[in-house]
Amino acid sequence: MKKNIAVIGGDGIGVEITVEARKVLNKIAAKFNYEFNYTDVLMGGIAIDETGVPLPDETVKVCKNSDAVLLGAVGGPKWDTGPGHLRPEAGLLGIRAALGLFANLRPVKLFDVLADACVLKNPGKIDMVIVRELIGGAYFGKRETYTDDSGARAAYDTMLYRDWEIERIAKAAFKLALKRSGNVYSVDKANVLDSSRLWREVVHATHTSNPEYAKITLSDMLVDNAAMQLVRDPSQFDVIVTENLFGDILSDEASVLTGSLGMLPSASVSESGVGLYEPCHGSAPDIAGQNKANPLAMILSAAMMLRLSFDMDAEAAAIEAAVEQVLAKGFRTGDIYRGLEGTRVVGCSEMGDLVVDNLG
Ligand code: NAD
Fold first, then answer.
1. Which residue in 99, 178, 200, 233 is a FRET match for 330, CA 20 to 30 A apart?
2. Residue 156, beta-bridge partner list
3. Quick check: helix, strand or coil at residue 275?
């Protein structure tokens, strides 16, 4: 089987970690007799430097024509002062919209061997997926900064959702829940926001629309409570589905439960087309170019690509098992090293090599 993969290394550690993910994918290709063809494309700060824009048309074209996209990270202080449309993050929003990536899936799993790296004293079992709506809500709604009639400076952003946007993200969450324990929390702010009241209504209508979903337990939770419950008792969650802004905040909060941003993969999927796979962290300019980055979030994102875009479940599971073995043997990048006996620090490239070696 042959697959075409567009690779956006991006900026900072994005470049280093995508190299490691490719090493792991190449081992999978050799072991299972696949052919993965990579096309490197520009996005973010490097694209601004080389082409004047954060998301060149050529990048969109290559990504649309690929079977999947791997993305490292974009951004850095060098590009922080430009106008909004000329910042690296504009590339991120642009590629999500261009590919119709409406659902962002963020698994938050605490590996047993990393329990010591969790910020909670008694974390219990943490294994959830946050399903975040990605191309609607306040980040894409009408906005304006202006001076009002009284002379005051004013600004607004619009959180707008259409019923079909809510329905498709609810279906994505239910589909996922059917493969897991079948427990879904829909997070909103329905006590205050109209968009949340519609959200709640449509999520419940979608739940009852398909007899298959009867196996799923659906509960609502207000976003302020969800933020508290995530640190009070994260083990109660299996699948959380929520809108764009709430999901952005909650998934970063949940990330600290796993010990490090460097452990968190993600997948962004469209209704029928190309998926984009990236770690949850940014370009980490403070450690870029020093072989200190943890490549595991990127490698686990590549595993999600195999499972969700290529239906390669066994191969994805092999990568996840290899990552667990490497951690169980005591190897840690600096971000997850706590000085415990039997553990030692390795660099980004060594960590990639270890995962490859443990794939057998
Ligand atoms: P960041 O995620 O880059 O870094 C936060 C902290 O976590 C830093 O101390 C960093 O060293 C550490 N860290 C992150 N990933 C790590 C890894 N794999 N291994 C080891 N340590 C890791 O967030 P930031 O510092 O707020 O942002 C830096 C730049 O990245 C900014 O320009 C921001 O806009 C951009 N950013 C991009 C994305 C993306 O491309 N999807 C996401 C978030 C931030």
1. 233
2. 144
3. strand
